[in-house]
Design brief:
Elements (H helix, E strand, L loop, with lengths): L2 E8 L6 E5 L4 H13 L3 H17 L6 H27 L2 E9 L2 H10 L2
Antiparallel strand pairs: 1-2, 1-3
Helix pairs in contact: 1-2, 1-3, 2-3
């Protein structure tokens, strides 16, 4: 089964390469906020946490709101987590170099390096 990977190279150190799979993330779907903390996406986690607090304040008036928010946020993390990670790496002076299809990250790296 082939996957699509985004290859990013650091502008500071050309040896530093990041390989990020593109698409839906099951880990982020089930463990979204923890997934964000694992990848040091502090701002995105903080935004989610503030929204969660706001939703729990609203739950006094609407009982289904927290459940709906958690389900909705799971889908958000699942669909957009990898894109947020790529955008975060771009802000950290990484440059997207190539999109590669391969069966895993090692093969994506080998494909990328063999094209040079």
């Amino acid at each position: 089964m082939t996957k699509t990977f985004c290859i990013l190279k650091s502008k500071k150190s050309p040896v530093n390469i990041e390989i990020i799979p593109i698409g839906f993330s099951w880990l982020a779907f089930f463990f979204g906020p923890l997934w964000a903390l694992t990848y040091k996406l502090w701002k995105d986690f903080l935004i989610w946490f503030v929204l969660l607090l706001f939703v729990f304040l609203l739950s006094k008036y609407f009982l289904a709101t927290p459940f709906f928010f958690l389900i909705l946020s799971s889908f958000f993390w699942g669909f957009f987590a990898k894109d947020i990670l790529i955008q975060n790496l771009i802000k950290k002076k990484f440059q997207p170099v190539r999109i590669v299809t391969a069966s895993n990250e090692k093969n994506a790296l080998l494909t990328f390096l063999s094209e040079k």
